[in-house]
């Protein structure tokens, strides 16, 4: 109730009569940690290993705040919306130049599902209100270098602007969604052929101890004869105190590659004409030692078929080993620690060297 009242106060610039009939909730995550990491770093004209340590924000989960609301329209229909912004606890700055970069949408929901439009975290993203696959990662696509988003590119918090999407209700354990983006990043421009359009889709199934998911994204890159395509498949199986995780991804004609160590949702564009195909694998486990204490572990690999562009080989091949733990102090607050190591072989604009990351921190939900 307190959060709803605060949210109403924050939204006071809008019509009081409309808000009085709506359910608006303020929510968020504050995540702060100490981190030591060794990463490829540009020093002059060379890329070399450099280490850094200090206080950081958003390791287990990106620090954020948001507003989520609904209004009953009658006939089983509701108007819904969400606005979500990230921020850095260590500096107090916003984590993007966009006001609501994590997600911003409005729509209508009912017994037959929901139709929404705006900036969406995709069904494949591992984050946001419509994620359908993040559960296959023991680290829930968080924990920096341990995240599946390092090798499963869509799971690196892939978001799409100017998107309209349909999300089904759950039928017999199945839930699905499909959407279309008129331009994945930024305002649409004329003519439409200059926009990077995309199709996003996903489906998952839950039955007792089993969970399975498939997602598929295809981006029609303006000015390119190739469409970047991501297929992700994975599942989990609960056995006593353990949850086993597995996943596989096929990524074709990659022209913008994931770089989680640059921040969740970070992608780097390759030079014009450069692209590669890759396969990724993930195996992991979650061990619930006690209701409050969990141990996480995963192994992931990415194997790319690259090419030479202007004398540079673009072929990111690497293995990542990760281990971590969380301990709940309360229903909303937990401590965490993680260690991840990347063994890199190949090259991708500075991501060609090994990397190591260690962090301990605290996360609070509100």
Characterization of this structure:
The chain is mainly beta. Helix content is 4%, strand content 58%. The strands form three sheets. A 16-stranded antiparallel β-barrel has the order 1-3-4-5-6-7-8-9-10-11-12-15-16-19-20-21. Strands 13-14 form a two-stranded antiparallel ribbon. A hairpin with a 6-residue loop joins strand 10 and strand 11. The longest helix is centred in the N-terminal third of the chain and has 9 residues, at 2-10. The two termini are 12 Å apart. The model is unreliable at 5-20 (pLDDT under 50).
SS element count, helices: 2
Question: What is the straight-line distance between the termini?
Answer: 12 Å
The rough form would be described as globular
Strand order of the largest sheet: 1-3-4-5-6-7-8-9-10-11-12-15-16-19-20-21
Q: Mean of residue pLDDT?
A: 88
The major pleated sheet works out as: 16 strands, antiparallel, barrel
> What's the β-strand tally?
21
Radius of gyration: 21 Å
Q: How much helix, percentage-wise, in residues?
A: under 10%
How much strand?
A: over 45%
Structural class: mainly beta
Uncertain regions spanning at least 5 consecutive residues: 5-20
Order of helices and strands: HHEEEEEEEEEEEEEEEEEEEEE
Describe the structure in brief.
It contains two helices and 21 strands.
What are the SSEs and their pairings?
Blueprint: H1 2-10, H2 16-20, E1 23-43, E2 46-57, E3 64-74, E4 77-86, E5 103-110, E6 113-121, E7 159-167, E8 174-181, E9 197-207, E10 210-220, E11 227-239, E12 242-254, E13 256-258, E14 267-269, E15 276-290, E16 293-305, E17 307-309, E18 312-314, E19 317-328, E20 333-345, E21 355-365
Antiparallel strand pairs: 1-2, 1-3, 1-21, 3-4, 4-5, 5-6, 6-7, 7-8, 8-9, 9-10, 10-11, 11-12, 12-15, 13-14, 15-16, 16-19, 17-18, 19-20, 20-21
